[in-house]
Each structure stands twice: as structure tokens, then as C-alpha cells.
Write a structure and sequence with these properties.
Structural class: alpha+beta
Helix content: 25-40%
Distance between the termini: 21 Å
Largest sheet: 6 strands, antiparallel
CATH architecture: Sandwich
Strand order of the largest sheet: 1-2-9-4-6-7
CATH superfamily: YjbQ-like
Order of helices and strands: EEEHEEHHHEEEE
């Protein structure tokens, strides 16, 4: 469901939507471009900026190409840089960790230190994309991608569109 506000003095519109999704887990990538573009159209903004953001520390939103070879190369590279098997992560050491512990983490015993490290390597949790004539200003092959770096979970992403 979207929320729209219009500043009647300046004519600047703001629109926000939250979208729920269930990820497959592991290192999975979901193309959310069509849903983001639909939010831009619903916002009524013709010229402005569209921000797409993941409020999860082990997910990210990136703009890149949706192509199987690239997606495979990207997964291999991340796993090489941040191995998941046979590597110690202090974040996963339940004898040592005392902060930000959820009951789900304790029940499963599955560590996700590698997911947090991958997320930090990817940079910000979201992207800002210009909007012109009511459309996202993406390059020919660019897509808006939601990346799951952890296990299967219910997730959400936010889109906010601001402009005139």
C-alpha cells in the first residue's frame, strides 16, 4: 500500500511504499525493477528521485545487469571473498557474543557473520535512481536487484519517490 503526500505550496510530491517478499535464502537475487517502476508511476512524480532501500542488515538493493553469467560470477566472487564454510566469525560465537541476539538466532544456531560481512562489502543498503518523465533513468541493461545474503526469510524493501 502506498502513502502519498503533496506539499501544496511547492508542488513537491512524496510517495512511499513498503513491499514484502519471501526470499529463497543463500545468495539469491530478485529483480524488483517492475515493482519499483510501478511505484514511480503511482506516485505521480514526473521528475525527481526514487530511493529503494532494504531495512535488513543482511540484504541489499543494487542496480546492475540481470544476466545469468554475471549473477553466477558475482556469487562466486562474494563467496571467495567471504567464505561461509570452515571460517570463524566472531559474530557467530555464541560463547562470546552478547549483543543483538534474537531468539531465532539462538534456536537455529545458524551463524550469519558471513552475511553481515558481505553486506558491508556491498556498501549502502539502497540505491537512489533519478526519475525523468515518470520513468526510472536506468541504463539499457540495468535492473533494480534485491539481494538476500542470509537464509530464507520474510523480508521487505521500501521505495520512496520525491519530486514534481
Amino acid at each position: 500500500m502506498g502513502l502519498r503526500e503533496i506539499d501544496t505550496l511547492s508542488g513537491v510530491k512524496t510517495f512511499q511504499r513498503e513491499v514484502q517478499l519471501r526470499t529463497a535464502g543463500g545468495l539469491t537475487v530478485t529483480d524488483i525493477t517492475h515493482e519499483v517502476q510501478a511505484a514511480v508511476r503511482e506516485s505521480g512524480v514526473q521528475n525527481g528521485i526514487c530511493c529503494v532501500y532494504s531495512p535488513h542488515t543482511t540484504c541489499s538493493v543494487r542496480v546492475n545487469e540481470w544476466e545469468n553469467g554475471f549473477l553466477e560470477d558475482f556469487a562466486v566472487m562474494l563467496k571467495r571473498l567471504v567464505p561461509t564454510e570452515q571460517h570463524y566469525y566472531a559474530h557467530d560465537d555464541w560463547d562470546r557474543r552478547t549483543e543483538n541476539i534474537s531468539p531465532e538466532d539462538m534456536e537455529t544456531g545458524n551463524g550469519n557473520g558471513h552475511s553481515h560481512c558481505m553486506s558491508m562489502l556491498l556498501g549502502p543498503a539502497g540505491e537512489s535512481i533519478p526519475v525523468r518523465s515518470g520513468d526510472l533513468c536506468l541504463g539499457t541493461w540495468q535492473r533494480v536487484l534485491f539481494l538476500e545474503l542470509d537464509r530464507e526469510r520474510d523480508r521487505r524493501w521500501l521505495v520512496q519517490v520525491v519530486g514534481v
